[in-house]
Design a protein that fits this description.
The chain has 305 residues and is of the alpha/beta class. The protein has one domain: 3-Layer(aba) Sandwich (Rossmann fold), CATH 3.40.50.1820. The chain has eleven helices and ten strands. Helix 2 crosses helix 3 (118-129). 50% of the residues are buried.
Length: 305
């Protein structure tokens, strides 16, 4: 397997260049045509972490794959840094599809997409809008709007999230005066974690487990004005017609967000695969859990693409 660092222009009018890595299967031959998979990272993550891990393993399974940094994050361009605008993150997925369709060795009718955590939610939203995506895989899926509105365990009502929306508006006002306010996308300190699962999120992003210099783990507070009202699954009941595989840990507090999409999608070609004993974070990098998830994804994309 080989890989190459590439740059991808996001054509949605922001002038952003995405930094990405493309992975090729063993014995890659440019004169042949391949199926491809776009891999989107979690909120607060970068391509060098779990997205790159899955992309490499998909390439080992015979696919051309791309892991990339979201607009405004990692090594991609865009200001302000660490903006987490879900609408642009959804467009990032389609920008990578744009890039793939122009490659002579990619079969444009065999492009799939997957994501981890919020990257899975953004992938679902992209598939609703962009039917060049022929199959969708999700790992520990998070609908970032639902998570911020309703809490990790879905125990907060929508109207009770209004203070967060107001906080986003206030942050925009502060930014206009020269400030820069941020919010954590995972606990920034171990003592901030409300449970063991989210303590693992701190461990993943802020210790030797998988910390990376371009992944600080926070977003601009102004992002709340886009996040709080966002629904990654908007109109899934009408337009999500592609095959769907949702992979979740049996003890993942976030599993309800995979169930939500599975209930709402128009497609009948849908399946949930449960990894026994895994939580949300296990599927990021725990070898046995990742290998089990990748086995399912390779089988799924091989059949559907």
């Amino acid at each position: 397997m080989s890989q190459q660092k590439i740059s991808i222009r996001n054509g949605n009018g922001q002038g952003i260049i995405l930094s990405a890595v493309i992975y090729f299967p063993a014995n890659f031959n440019e004169s042949e045509q391949y199926a491809a998979v776009v891999v989107s990272h979690p909120g607060g993550g970068v391509k060098e972490q779990t997205a790159g891990l899955y992309a490499r393993k998909l390439a080992e399974g015979g696919f051309v794959s791309i892991a990339y940094d979201a607009s405004y994050q990692g090594e991609s361009t865009g200001e302000p840094r660490q903006l987490e605008n879900p609408y642009i993150r959804t467009e990032d997925v389609s920008a990578v599809v744009d890039y793939l369709t122009a490659l002579p060795y990619i079969d444009s009718e065999r492009i799939g997409a997957m994501g981890i955590c919020a990257g899975a939610g953004y992938t679902a939203n992209a598939a609703i809008n962009d039917h060049r995506i022929k199959a969708v895989g999700m790992v520990s899926a998070v609908n970032i709007g639902s998570m911020f509105r309703n809490g990790w365990e879905n125990n907060v009502k929508d109207p009770d999230a209004l203070p967060y929306l107001l906080a986003g508006s206030n942050a925009r006002t502060a930014d206009a005066a020269g400030g820069s306010q941020t919010i954590p996308l995972a606990p920034l300190r171990e003592e901030d974690a409300p449970n063991e699962e989210l303590r693992e999120a701190w461990e993943y992003y802020h210790t030797d487990r998988c910390q990376y210099p371009t992944a600080p783990g926070f977003a601009t507070a102004r992002s709340l004005t886009q996040i709080i009202s966002y629904d990654a699954y908007n109109k899934a009941e009408a337009f999500f017609t592609q095959p769907l595989l949702a992979i979740v840990g049996s003890v993942a507090g976030s599993a309800w967000m995979s169930d939500d999409l599975l209930e709402r999608v128009a497609t009948t070609d849908k399946r949930k695969y449960i990894i026994d004993g895994a939580n949300h974070m296990s599927l990021y990098d725990r070898k046995n859990d990742v290998d089990e998830a990748v086995g399912q994804l390779i089988s799924f994309f091989t059949e559907k693409l």
